[in-house]
Design goal:
heterodimer, A: 177 residues, 5-stranded mixed beta sheet, 18% strand, elongated, B: 211 residues, alpha/beta
Chain lengths: 177, 211
């Protein structure tokens, strides 16, 4: 029987595994990244207990308070105080931007003003923020404003329902853009 | 001078061992990865700077977009029990097969009147049908007929009887009108859930806080 001529040279059976290792580690990295970073975060929110509201309720000092009304088109209408006297309340407009017309500056200013207010007792020198989302605001605005509370380190804040006089107040505001 | 002969060595090393390690790790990560169940209601969550991860267990997740509220809860056993309790209250009975389907369906937004239709649908049509559901009905005037209220109360009862403290998370779309959120919050507050959380995406914290 004739022998099969293999050409004389023996071909090595070893193959270069480098590309396979590359591929392996690429996939490992992919799975590692997708497992750990896909988790969303949660922002905790505590609402006042409606049943015990009377107990917790305390008079808010006008000089400490600032009221933010979340309006349409991502606007924030704000005024100092709690709006006991709507006729003499000056309502201004801010946005969720970080610039000079941003709400962050307003909050930080309020914080600084309250902290330097010598007519208040030392333990009272923290601002109180009342957040009143209007029916035209969207969910993003609420989350953004709560986030601003965290960023500006404001400890006392609450989400409150908007009142009828306040709806009237923001209705008449003309915003020039 | 006599020449020193340096024997030339091959620079290629044996990659077999490295390859083994890479694939071992790959297998491990592939097996531990949990794939996301299909989401019938796709939402675009707002971003915030908080860095607290969402808990995996004992969580009621309310997904909200436009005017629709979908619900999800972990643990198959709890889901089946809750479905049975809801069925008793709203006069719908489910077969064992339908209960099994419900325990694996993930997020759902079917009113009790459409639940049977959803659970008995063919597998390939179920995802489409699930995404077309009108959401869990909420009636904030008459809480006795509010299905969302009942789901929450039943799930919490079951979880509490298993000694598990359950938390509620709201996952809303950025463009959800606030009245819908307010509505859901009022349902939660009605049963004394005053602490809940909002699901958000990660965002970098601003560094320059000075004016």
């Amino acid at each position: 029987m004739a022998e099969i001529n293999t050409g004389g040279k023996k071909v090595s059976t070893r193959i270069d595994l480098t590309p396979m290792v590359d591929l392996g580690f690429l996939l490992v990295t992919f799975f590692m990244v997708t497992t750990t970073f896909s988790k969303p975060n949660v922002m905790e929110l505590a609402m006042p207990d409606k049943n015990n509201l009377k107990k917790d309720e305390q008079a808010v000092k006008e000089s400490r308070a600032i009221t933010l009304i979340l309006g349409e088109k991502d606007r924030v209408y704000y005024y100092h105080g709690t709006g006991q006297d709507p006729a003499n309340t000056k309502v201004e407009t801010a946005y969720f931007t970080s610039g000079s017309n941003g709400i962050r500056k307003v909050l930080l200013d309020q914080k600084a003003t309250v902290a330097n207010n010598t007519s208040l007792q030392i333990k009272e020198r923290e601002p109180i923020v009342l957040i009143k989302p209007d029916s035209k605001s969207r969910y993003k605005n609420v989350v953004d404003i709560l986030d601003e509370m965290k960023i500006c380190d404001i400890k006392i804040y609450a989400i409150v329902d908007i009142s009828v006089p306040e709806k009237e107040m923001i209705k008449n505001i003309v915003v020039t853009e | 001078m006599p020449k020193v002969k340096i024997p030339r060595k091959s620079t290629s090393i044996d990659m077999t061992a490295m390859c083994d390690v890479a694939f071992l790790l790959l297998t491990f990560f592939m097996l531990t990865t949990k794939f996301k169940p299909p989401e019938p209601l796709q939402v675009d969550t707002p971003s915030s700077t908080v860095a607290q991860a969402i808990p995996d267990k004992n969580m009621i997740l309310l997904t909200i977009r436009d005017n629709r509220v979908f619900l999800d809860v972990d643990q198959q056993q709890v889901r089946v029990q809750a479905l049975e309790m809801m069925g008793t209250k709203y006069g719908v009975s489910f077969t064992d097969q339908e209960k099994a389907v419900f325990s694996n369906i993930g997020t759902f937004g079917a009113p009790m009147s459409n639940m049977k239709q959803l659970l008995s649908s063919a597998v390939n049509e179920r995802d489409i049908l699930a995404s077309k559901m009108p959401g869990i009905p909420r009636d904030t005037v008459n809480f006795d007929k509010c299905e969302l209220f009942d789901w929450l109360i039943f799930i919490r009862q079951i979880k509490q009887s298993n000694q598990n403290d359950v938390k509620v998370a709201v996952k809303g779309d950025v463009n959800t009108p606030y009245p819908v959120i307010q509505n859901v919050i009022s349902v939660l507050q009605k049963q004394n859930i005053n602490q809940f959380s909002f699901v958000t995406n990660m965002e970098a914290k601003p560094t320059n806080l000075k004016n």
